[in-house]
Amino acid sequence: MARELAEDSFTILAVKSWDAIVLGAGIIGVSVARELRKQGMEVMLVERGEPGREASFAAAGMLAPYSADTPDTLWPFAEASARLYPGFVKEVESDSGMQVDLRSQGTIAFLESQEELLSLPCLPELSASQVAELEPGLSAPGGRAFFLEERSVDARALMAASLEASRVRHIQLISGAPVTGVERTDGRSLEVKTERDRLLAPIVVNCAGAWAGQFPPHKFPTRPVKGQMLAVSAPEGLRLRHVVRTPAVYVVPRSDGRILIGATQEEAGFDRSVDPKAIERLRQAAAGLFPALGSARVLESWSGLRPGTPDALPILGPTATPGYFVAAGHFRNGFLLAPLTAQTMAAVIRGSEPSVDITRFSPSRFER
Q1: Which is deepest, 22, 153, 261, 325, by most CB within 10 Å?
Q2: Which residues of 246-283 are buried (b: 16+ CB within 10 A; e: fewer)?
Q3: pTM
């Protein structure tokens, strides 16, 4: 599909300009592009590699507003985005004609440190008998257990459906085109330079994830944070219903019988290699929770590069370059934050007041 879209795009390049160009075809970029298209804009997506195959392809799909590595200053935005999810998925499914595995069974979270306990909002604590009733196959680790009314989604299915929905909405796409720079050409246009094209639009939105700071004019401090994980086939007799999170590992069920186990968090630059020892440690940690997983068949293992920032908050809003915007640095929460990020960026680009305050996420916080 990406190749066909790219070929269509090359035909259009010679005869047409765009109202907006979005850099990056992961879940954030595609969601922003779709929202701008809904506002009547002609939109072009520019992807450095294969659409949807970077962090979005590697994600577990937990839609978790509360976690140990989510700053509490992000919670209001995360909660608001989580509430949008049923409608967000319904629209993607309707446009694409594809099904997305959105699950609403909730999460069982085991917390050990006092810091984690103090950082959480008031949540229902579970007794040992309640944990056993919710997940009969679970061998509860140490720490207190809480139930979180969270959803999860099949990240790859949602990404594929979002790409198809963008095609249906006549959003153009160029893939395999790393951006080398963005600069103003005159008082009205921005020029996006790739290794093979020069594209013009009055609005450019940088949604390039870990690569957002890799080209001028603004060196956004995004960095790749490597995560490795694996998927196993659910063993016979194990009917895992809930996401289960501990400080050491998380286990995420899919409706098709796969179970995802993750994930490492490594400062390894742009290295995407998969370490069998790290994968085995994750598998053993999951087997400590569900002994039946000790003999489960491994379906695949992979790694992804999450876009981190120095303060673990996303970078959202206008830059010092007129017409140039950024929506990057979502770290582990790209899927969770995609619906509200798209709506917020569309409002800011239109010059409207967004529904939530994004002052804390402004790119200006990193300017000297």
Answers
A1: 22
A2: bbebbbbbbeeebbbbbbbebebeeeeeebeebbeebb
A3: 0.93
